Amino acid sequence: MVGLPLSAGKFAVAEVMSCDWCDWSDAPEDAPPCYLSVTFEPSGRYSAHMVRIGLTGGIGSGKSTVAGLLAARGAVVIDADRIAREVVEPGTPGLAAVIEAFGDGVLAADGALDRPALAGIVFADPEARARLDGIVHPLVRERAVELAAAAAADAVLVNDVPLLVETGQAGSYDLVLVVEADLDVRLARLVERGMTEDDARARIAAQATDEQRRAVADVVLDNSGTLERLEEQVDRFWTERVEPARS
Ligand code: ATP
User: Does the CB atom of residue 141 touch ligand 1 within 6 A?
Assistant: First the structure.
């Protein structure tokens, strides 16, 4: 848990949750899927006008797409998986620390992190995994809190939390926004993105069900259709739920 002061004496606290088999290190097909996520304390220490949205949905449902649409409307998006990749980009202290811990063998020819090579080490060795987590997680927490602290007092803060339901974080947000899409649509989109259908099915089966997500949702978006259809729903969500919550 780390914290940073916000303006006017307010304070943000972030905690990284559920980090076994993090998605960012490219879990092999037989590994259970899991994701980094950062949760913010529902303490009321934020301005009454800041709206904290927990965005979730099953793998391939369209969370990143919705996050992008919300960002286009001015939301500040905190995506822990993305941050976890950023903190080990070439030239970062994070990558230097990973090389110091695991050697040059985890570097690709272009100087970037060789994720499959690193995954090969950490998935076979829990101690190595813990060492890697010990490097990456504090950097992710620090960056996530920095982003939240830099947001305006009336910002719309969107946390992309794939395992929000599985990790019991629904209470951490003012609004829980769930993205859904039909199973066959999700499978097709994941296969299109390069995943095997078997892997996609296994990951979907290991996650919460649509019913479990709906049970904690304030709003459910249906992303089985076109992007235009999704955008209309995001517009409506913004107008009917986000704007009123800010005023
Ligand atoms: P993950 O759980 O893997 O992070 P996600 O829930 O963030 O996935 P996206 O990455 O937003 O899902 O979407 C999955 C794929 O489907 C992407 O390639 C995206 O471009 C595509 N996609 C999302 N929504 C639509 C849509 N309405 N029409 C067509 N393609 C879509």
Answer: no
Find the CATH number of the domain harbouring 239.
Answer: 3.40.50.300
44-74 residue pLDDT tens: 444 458 999 999 999 999 999 999 999 999 9
Query: What's this model's pTM, rounded to 2 decimal places?
Result: 0.77
- Which domain does 242 fall in, by range? 2-246
- How far apart, in whole angstroms, are the C-alpha atoms of residue 240 and residue 235? 8
Contact 185, 199 (CB under 8 A): no
Dist. CA 63 → ligand 1 center (Å): 7
pLDDT digits (tens, 9 = 90+) for 138-165: 898 899 889 988 999 899 999 998 888 9
Atom of ligand 1 nearest to the CA of 229: 27
Please give the Cα distance from 6 to 12 (Å, whole number): 7
Number of domains present in the structure of the chain:
1
